Amino acid sequence: MKTHKIRHQLFLDAPISQRLEALAEKPGMNKSAVLADAVKAWLDRRGTNELDDRFGQRLNRISAQLNRIERDQKIVLESLALFVRLTLLRDAHLPEPDAAARAMARDRFEQFVAQLGRQLSQGSQSLTPGAFEEGM
């Protein structure tokens, strides 16, 4: 398959022209091949840099945000697992709850949901220092 080539006429400074001549003298090389390789490399490199310039900082910022989200999720899951484990250990020996205990548990759960709603609406976090004392 024969590729169609387009002729270009260009002007080079003398030092660059001398370097081109030196490269073209090597076996299997010619000026057209050297210039075609140089132009292709320059265009490929420029396209890569342009994409990096446009999206590199944004992608780095998104990556950092995702890393923080992942870290926060691990903290939340570990906290929940620890809470459940400690609650089960503490309450394992309690007798079957009566109506008063179930009512107290229901009230505590409603207070928990209300407190959670307040914190979410205010944007406050329980994991920040001092938040536990302030939220109670």
Q: Uncertain segments of ≥5 residues (pLDDT<50)?
A: none
Please work out how many helical segments DSSP would assign: 4
Helices and strands: which structural class? mainly alpha
Strand content: under 5%
Mind summarizing the main beta sheet? none
What average pLDDT do the residues reach?
Answer: 80
Can you tell me the overall shape? rod-shaped
- Radius of gyration, Cα only, in angstroms? 35 Å
- Helix-strand pattern: HHHH
Please tally the β strands and state the result. 0
Considering DSSP H and I runs of 4 or more, what fraction of the residues is helical? over 70%
How far apart are the first and last residues' alpha carbons, in Å?
79 Å
Summarize the structure.
This protein has 136 residues and is mainly α.
